[in-house]
């Protein structure tokens, strides 16, 4: 095997290397929500949503332990998982913005099954029962078993790539 002289030298692992590599990985955009016992609903934008198993139906997502949503998610029994549509850039940005009142207008939502905040107008949503929180560096990987949902929203998915929200191309 020969190595081309046009290739950049490999970089040692670092947080910036990981971020740079994953900017090149297109990911679906989801919003995770939960109901706090005292402070009301919380939520954040996630690109780490993964289908884990079909039987039982399990999903996972990562959440930073320094996130404003983490104290509620650390205790929540149920979470809402929302798949955003390509026209929901602003909703994704609102839930990604630190210090934003994420559930204020124009965000449209209602209290769904198990008391979980459910966002209106999304492509699909699930309510999941949290079954595990796995330590992973400065994050936790949350595993949730789907208990109810709706996959019937119209449209195409919102993607995150190269640091911005985008849509599928034909």
Note the main sheet: 7 strands, antiparallel
What percent strand? Answer: 35-45%
Tally of DSSP helical segments: 3
Helix and strand composition category = mainly beta
CATH-level-4 superfamily name: Electron Transport, Fmn-binding Protein, Chain A
- CA-to-CA gap between the ends? 36 Å
Q: Provide the CATH topology.
A: Pnp Oxidase, Chain A
CATH architecture annotation: Roll
Strand order of the largest sheet: 3-2-6-9-10-5-4
Q: Ranges with pLDDT <50 over ≥5 residues?
A: none
What's the number of structural domains?
Answer: 1
Would you report the number of β strands?
12
Q: Fraction of residues in helices?
A: 10-25%
The CATH C-level class name: Mainly Beta
Which term fits the overall shape? Answer: globular
Characterization of this structure:
It is an enzyme of class 1 (oxidoreductase). This is Flavin reductase family protein. The structure is a single chain. This protein is mainly β and 170 residues long. It has one domain (15-151): Electron Transport, Fmn-binding Protein, Chain A (Pnp Oxidase, Chain A). The protein is 12% helix and 41% strand. The chain is built from three helices and twelve strands, in the order H-E-E-E-E-E-H-E-H-E-E-E-E-E-E. The chain has a seven-stranded antiparallel beta sheet with strand order 3-2-6-9-10-5-4. The protein is globular.
Give the SSE layout:
Layout: H1 15-23, E1 27-28, E2 30-35, E3 41-46, E4 50-53, E5 58-64, H2 70-73, E6 78-83, H3 89-96, E7 109-111, E8 117-119, E9 124-136, E10 139-150, E11 158-161, E12 164-167
Antiparallel strand pairs: 1-11, 2-3, 2-6, 4-5, 5-10, 6-9, 7-8, 9-10, 11-12
Domain Flavin reductase like: 22-167
Organism: Streptomyces ochraceiscleroticus
Enzyme class: oxidoreductase
């Amino acid at each position: 095997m020969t190595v081309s002289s046009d290739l950049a030298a490999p970089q040692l692992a670092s947080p910036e290397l990981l971020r740079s590599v994953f900017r090149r990985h297109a990911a679906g955009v989801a919003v995770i929500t939960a109901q706090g016992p005292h402070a009301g609903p919380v939520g954040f934008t996630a690109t780490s949503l993964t289908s884990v198993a079909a039987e039982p139906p399990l999903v996972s997502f990562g959440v930073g332990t320094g996130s404003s949503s983490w104290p509620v998610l650390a205790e929540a029994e149920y979470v809402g998982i929302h798949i955003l549509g390509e026209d929901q850039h602003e909703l994704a940005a609102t839930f990604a913005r630190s210090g934003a009142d994420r559930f204020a207008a124009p965000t449209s939502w209602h209290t769904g099954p198990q008391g979980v905040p459910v966002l209106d107008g999304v492509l699909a949503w699930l309510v999941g029962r949290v079954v595990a929180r796995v330590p992973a560096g400065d994050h936790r990987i949350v595993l949730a078993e789907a208990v109810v949902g709706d996959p019937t929203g119209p449209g195409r998915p919102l993607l995150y790539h190269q640091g911005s929200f985008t849509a599928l191309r034909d």
